[in-house]
Amino acid sequence: MNIHLQTKCFTIRDIEESDLEGMFDLDSNPNVHKFLGNSPIKTREEAKSMIENIRTQYQTNSIGRWQIKTPMNL
Questions:
Q1: Where are the domains of the chain?
Q2: Neighbours of 42 (CB within 10 A)
Q3: What is the signed CA dihedral for 59, 62, 63, 68, rounded to 10 degrees?
Q4: Which helix (H) or strand (E) holds 47?
Q5: The pTM is what?
Q6: Bridge partners of 67?
Q7: What pLDDT, in 10s, does the model give residues 31-63?
Q8: Closest Cα partner for 17 from 58, 41, 47, 37?
Q9: CA 27 – CA 19 distance, rounded (Å)
């Protein structure tokens, strides 16, 4: 796991395959895409493909979207 920033309030890290459910929950929500001009995804297979694409961007572009996690007690 490649962590880019970690504080007591949050962790910013590379997206991993284990983030599938979170990616699906976020990117299948129409409200998330309301102002982005994108269409929400409809399947977990699309979320998996998106994660694979982002992980490829890390290799080809040295950057990609990151995951931000906060402790459950905040």
A1: 3-69
A2: 11
A3: 80
A4: helix 44-61
A5: 0.83
A6: 13
A7: 999 988 889 999 999 999 999 999 999 999 999
A8: 47
A9: 12
